[in-house]
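Can't paste images in this forum, so I'm doing it all in text. The chain is below; anyone willing to post the predicted structure tokens underneath?
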Amino acid sequence: SKLTFLGQLEMTWKNRVHFHPLLVRILHKSRLRYYGKPEKKMDMPYQAYFEVADGSGMMSMVLWNSLCPEWYNSMKVGTVLLLEQYAVKASYPFKTQPTPGDSQMKRFATIEISLNVRDPPTKISIIPEEMVKPEWGLPEVKYRFITRSELDDLPNNYSCDVIGLVTFVGRAERQRKKEHGEDFWLYRWAHAIDGTSDQPFILQLYATSQPDVFEHIHPMTYLVCTQMRVVRDLTEDPSSTVYLTTSNESQIFITGCHKGQPYTKDTKVKNFIQWTKTQNEANQMKKTVIGGYYPFPRPPNNFLKY
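Text version of the structure:
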């Protein structure tokens, strides 16, 4: 069928009602957002953002309401979609922006693709990877993997991807979303090592829309976390308090989820796998810890500072 490009869409969207189909690859995926309120009667008040790209650049795509439970889990990073009968709207200015793995990629930030059950009813097709043709010119998913030895030189809020062997995982903890609100975020602390430093990655992992993965992070798991943000306490000794926290677009993968993921081709991931083959499993097992209370960042050593 006759296709359109994201770049053409940005130039012509105001003068059109019907759009030609789009062929895009998903590069980033946000957590699922529930926006229901007691006074509003909506069946499925869900929303999820994706960043999709073709040969011309990258644009946000929003999945609305009942399409979320139907499609959210099938739409993975790297999935190729054929979209028909979608809507185009001016983009929402306050949403979070993932950091693209390819810094050269053009970003179309003024509009977003809207997928709804009606007005118009969107038709979504997933193209299997083996049927994707090189001549379609779809970009590959690119990552920003770092090693533990590189982390100490990175600035606050830097966006990166990490892979490591889990040596510690804490219990699930809760944090209020608002000071006096009823809603909580759920998170847990984890440590992961990659052989490039004596220090582990310290990871603050919030429960995103992957409860099955969040609950099964165990010591000795190969853990991949994407779109993590560097957090440094610049007031204290910056090197001692550096850790990574999840962002709205973070994806977490554990042993059993890695097969077929785009990051398996990344050089740093391959280097990590080579390192794990040199390790003695029994020796590493002795150093692992699970559960318990983990106060981090640590309180100061003397009470006056505290």
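DSSP finds six helices and 16 strands in the chain. The CA atoms of residues 220 and 283 lie 11 Å apart.
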